[in-house]
Amino acid sequence: MTPINESDGEDAIFFEEYNRYPGTKFGGFPNCIQHGHNLDGFVFQIGSEEKPNWMWADNGIAYFNKDESGDWVFECQFY
Asked: Would you say the C-alpha torsion 76, 52, 65, 33 has a positive or negative sign?
């Protein structure tokens, strides 16, 4: 991150790209709307986004986890 932080304008470009799609991501930590999401088995989340014309009710985010038995677990949070 040092080269980005020390370069004029590069930090703005980085954070613009990083924040472009805050609702959809694979891995990492979930971006929760209403309350903390269960981190155990978190795989990915899909957010409501204009570009693909997709909406989970009131601008929500759907979270997909796998439990210990390998079954998919789904949760959705809304604004």
From this structure: negative
